[in-house]
Specification:
Two copies of one chain form a homodimer.
Chain A lengths: L7 H16 L6 H7 L4 H7 L3 H23 L9 H17 L1 H9 L10 H4 L2 H10 L4 H20 L5 H16 L5
Helix pairs in contact in A: 1-2, 1-6, 4-8, 5-9, 5-10, 8-9, 9-10
Chain A binds a DNA duplex (18 and 18 nucleotides) through helix 3.
Chain lengths: 185, 185
DNA sequence: GTCTATAGACTGATAGAC
DNA sequence: GTCTATCAGTCTATAGAC
């Protein structure tokens, strides 16, 4: 029987992202995804050749955004002393995490994912690249600061998921910018 | 046939923690854990009644430490202006994460875990409780700062796992302490 | 495009011999 | 304590009807 909606593929992705983010990829079966939108597992296989292919298509948009951000910033590292410039990059990273927060959740929660053949090549150290651009330095202490700042920012969109994220934005970015300042407090 | 080692239970826990941290709990089977230490799945079941029981015993020590820290700090909130006091708490949290970094990894990577009946009651908002003690405030902005600081610190013991963590400690704690300072940078 | 039916592998867990 | 053997259930994935 034909279905009420036109875009079954989009429906599959939406249901899958929700379940993957909530329970993890391994803990979610294709049967569950299919049943959530009222089709059978076999019908799902008509649209996606495998679970890996589905996961790959889900995480792709975020990787594309990260690559764009990396490309744009590459070659012109941020001066750590220029607070406005640092803040601008942190803000963009926050917005990116916010837009893709369900994907962030999936990636954080599924380490085995990045080892899968379909997905690993697309990861390319995603956040590490932004780290590097942001601190523009190989100094290990600078890298640590970047991990605290961006890791912390990334965590907020997950931890405060149900809350008013517009209110979280300001303090989160402030804290991250401060964490990035070199030297002892 | 009796085995070379005395403490099979400890061997099981060690192998399980390694595999759970690496791939996630759902993606690791009891057969894999058993075979890694040269016994069968049935032998493993002699020592642990279920997968949940095994997971529970693995995460217990960290929860116990968090409860101790919470108990000790409870009732005497840290003055956000007292930098030395703030630093002391952040340092203790860092050490706790470092000691339990494989468990941290397991918990981060397995959201579904905290919903399991055996484990949920022991979680009791672990990090949230430390957050609360640390900022000693219900102000949402303070809570956000605490999440950035402690989330960032927690991330470093995972991200820099293979590196020299003694060198990571200083910059990580500095960055977290700075992130906790109120107001705009 | 969606279905039913099924293959084949693996899972967590148990029974009972040694 | 560890084994072999097995259960019932689930999984990914496919074949073929409509």
């Amino acid at each position: 029987m034909p279905r009420a909606t036109v875009d079954t593929r989009a429906e599959i992705r939406a249901a899958a992202l929700e379940l993957f983010a909530e329970r993890g990829v391994e803990a979610t079966s294709l049967r569950e995804i299919a049943e959530r939108i009222g089709i059978t597992k076999a019908a799902l296989y008509y649209h996606y050749a495998s679970k890996d292919a589905l996961v790959g298509e889900l995480v792709d948009p975020m990787f594309a955004e990260l690559r764009e951000l990396g490309d744009e910033l590459e070659g012109r590292p941020v001066d750590a002393g220029d607070e406005a410039a640092v803040r601008a990059v942190v803000e963009r990273f926050w917005e990116l995490c916010l837009r893709n927060r369900e994907v962030v959740r999936v990636l954080i929660h599924n380490p085995a994912l990045i080892a899968r053949a379909e997905i690993a090549p697309r990861m390319l150290h995603w956040r590490e690249r932004v780290d590097a651009v942001l601190v523009g330095s190989d100094d290990p202490a600078d890298r640590v600061r970047a991990v605290v700042a961006l890791g912390g920012v990334q965590d907020t969109v997950i931890v405060f998921e149900g809350d008013d994220l517009a209110a979280v934005r300001g303090p989160a970015i402030d804290a991250a910018v401060r964490a990035l300042q070199p030297g002892r407090p």
